[in-house]
Amino acid sequence: MNISNSIVEKAADATAKVTPISVVRRVRGLSDRAIAWLFIAPAIVLLLAINIFPLIWAIYLSFTNYRANRPNAAVEGVGLRNYERVLTDPDIWQAMQTTAHFVFWTIVLQTVIGFTLAYLIDRKFRGHAFWTTVILIPMMLSPAVVGNFWRFLYEPQIGLFAYAVSWLSGIPTSDIRMLGDVSLAPWAIIIVDTWMWTPYVMLICLAGLRSIPDYIYEAAEVDRASAWRQFWSITVPMALPFIMLAVLFRGIENFKMFDMVTLLTGGGPGSVTEVASITLKRAAFESWATGRASAFAIVLFVAVFGLANIYVKALNKVKQR
Amino acid sequence: MQKKSKALLGLASALMLSSALPNLAIADELTLCWAAWDPANALVELSKDFTAKTGTTVKFEFVPWTSYADRFLNELNSHGKLCDLIIGDSQWIGGSAENGHYVKLNDFFDKEGIKMDDFVPATVVGYSEWPKNTPNYWALPAMGDVVGWTYRKDWFERPELKKEFKEKYGWDLAAPKTYDQLKQIAEFFQKREIDGKTVYGASIYTERGSEGITMGVTNVLYDWGFQYDNPKKPYEMEGFVNSPDAVKGLEFYKSLFDCCTPPGSSNVYMVESADAFKSGQVAMQMNFAFTWPGLYKDEKVGGDRIGFFPNPAEKAHFAQLGGQGISVVSYSDKKDAALEYIKWFAQPDVQAKWWELGGFSCLNSVVNAPGFAGSQPYAQAFLDSMAIVKDFWAEPSYASLLQAMQKRVHNYVVAGNGTAQEALDGLVKDWTQVFEDDGKI
Question: Is A237 a domain residue?
Fold first, then answer.
């Protein structure tokens, strides 16, 4: 018998003697499943309290005329009127279109640039670790800092961006009004979001590229497959689940885009950059139309949840191939 | 033995007193909530006198303008006890009165002999009354404020510019009296080279996110004839909000934005406008009067270089009211001490010092005092401006009304979408919906 084991057993016996028998029996009588539930229960309670309950409460509020700034007023049920208002409001449809525009272009640009960067970094050239760190810096900054930083860069009179564009194109800097021009302002935000979050897509793509075993490329080399053929037949298909995962994460994040738009344009000029989250915030916390805002939030939730589910199914199919 | 007992008793009393004193100090502490800006600093200085007189410490909770409404309306809506006193925006009065956030002050004013007749009438209506024009008081007028203009007096006085201006427009280059004159001056300075630097005509409010463009454009709309509703039938807006005159006013504001503002002026409010002036970019600047003391002290553009004028006139003569009243928060545990502060603040000598320190008093005895107009270079412009004020809706749903105006006006003026008529027609539609939701129409 191992001496140390005997000491542990003695200590365990001593502890058992000190612990009241009923408790010991009670715990010992529990099945593994019950003990597992015992450990998971606090997390589930927390999840119910901070995720599920607010969701159910928001669903309830969406059928009422409740206003959070008038807590003493009687709360009345309004049936589906809030949903009807939300779904027939041209401003909300406009905000949804603006959001879709942002989501589409930021995903396209971030995926293409992120994958390209990952592909280049994966070549493991001299100094690639340094350049990887440099590329990751924007992602590590606070959105508040990034927003203010780019607001100055976009300044027509003193901004470096306007100066650079003017130098390249010959257009006077005073005419390069990135944040004040209706056609340029959406692109100004897309550029900033792409600058900030492309490194994130790059990281995920890099993980995908690094997961491809070298022997597959070696076999392709033996078969004399061209570099282009290797890229299309090995690299892209095998990295595709990772790329799709990055698209999913960025899509969900950009659907909720708020901080960057608020900092750069405040939704303007006019309403061309007013995304759904800003419209929702204004309805909920400025107009205090809590019932209607809840209905809008539920509509957004269903849209994101539904699209994400369809997407995850497609992702699983790709993984199974 | 007896001596020993007395000594022990004394020691025990001293210990009890010393432990009780900090509690007393905590009980006598008030928290005052306001925006973080220059007048708030003046109030900190002024409140030292209150502490010296009463022993009550005043703590301050100042929040930047950008989050002022969000922060404190959330605090009031959640019945928070953070603020004992609040200097809330004029538009909050309706909602705060109807939702029970503020203590009604009528009985207190009667008891303490504080008369609303002693204050500038427009500030009483704007900052204290709800419903408007009824003797129901929820605040004491605290900080008078109004939109007005500053201009580069040193540029206006240059002989070569004066001569060129006179030849071009046929009148002397001076502070404008009408909006047409203001536009001519702005056009004259737009993209002009002064001291080797390109300068621009005027900085005006265009901010989209909170209330900026509304606070700017209303100055012009009022003067052209815009009215919030039919004076004879409340909430009837058709033909008043979107009257032909109001449409012309909005078109003028857009023309001013298009012709005469610095590049990149699509999101300008108080800070950006003051910055444009301080950095020597513009000849004229639209801004609330609270910025004037700071600008006058500025080393580069202040002193003899700066001039002040009230909002110009057109068909009518109005200016957008700013400013706030001071209220006691009904959820405070220290209402008596808070009322004591208001009583102290209402005193004429305190109000006089308030003006001296950089606050804008609303007390008649201060602003009508013989030497007032000459007491500061901007005092006359402030007096003239306060005589012509008009305020935005102070309805409980003012935020929804404001959001609608921000969107419609910005869409037309800055984004250049649609016509002025369409913008104001749309505004009538939005505001009608808000009042229908509120059951007012």
Answer: yes
| Host domain of residue A131 | 89-320
Q: Tell me the residues of chain B between 252 and 281 that have a Cβ less than 8 Å away from chain A.
A: 262-267, 281
**Which residues of B are less than 8 Å from A277 in CB distance?**
none
DSSP-assigned letters across all residues of B406-424: HHHHHHHHTS--S-HHHHH
Q: How many domains does chain A have?
A: 1
DSSP state letter for B93: H
- Closest partner residue to B264 (CB to CB) among A68, A180, A270 is A180
CATH number, residue A241? 1.10.3720.10
Answer for the pair B328, B345: CB distance below 8 angstroms, yes or no: no
Assess contact for B228 and B240: CB atoms under 8 A.
Answer: yes
Examine residue A170 and state whether it is found in any structural domain, yes or no: yes
CB atoms within 10 A of CB A288: 23
Distance CA B295, CA B153 (A): 13
Smallest Cβ–Cβ distance between B415 and the set A262, A268, A286 belongs to: A268
Residue listed under structure tokens 């454009």: B217
Residue A52 lies in a domain: no
pLDDT(B7) > 60: no
Kindly state whether residue A147 falls inside one of the protein's structural domains.
yes
Strand, helix or coil at B129? Answer: strand
Give the pLDDT confidence of B271-328 residue by residue, as tens digits. Answer: 999 999 999 999 999 999 999 999 999 999 999 999 999 999 999 999 999 999 999 9
pLDDT for residue B4 is more than 60: no
Contacts of A150-158 with CB under 8 Å at 24 or more apart are: A150/A188, A150/A192, A150/A195, A150/A264, A151/A179, A151/A263, A151/A264, A154/A178, A154/A179, A154/A188, A154/A264, A154/B264, A155/B264, A156/A180, A156/B263, A156/B264, A157/B262, A157/B263, A157/B264, A157/B281
Q: pLDDT (tens digit, 9 = 90+) per residue, A3-50?
A: 455 565 665 566 555 555 555 556 667 888 888 999 999 999 999 999
Q: Determine the Cα–Cα distance for residues B279 and A112; give it in Å rounded to an integer.
A: 42
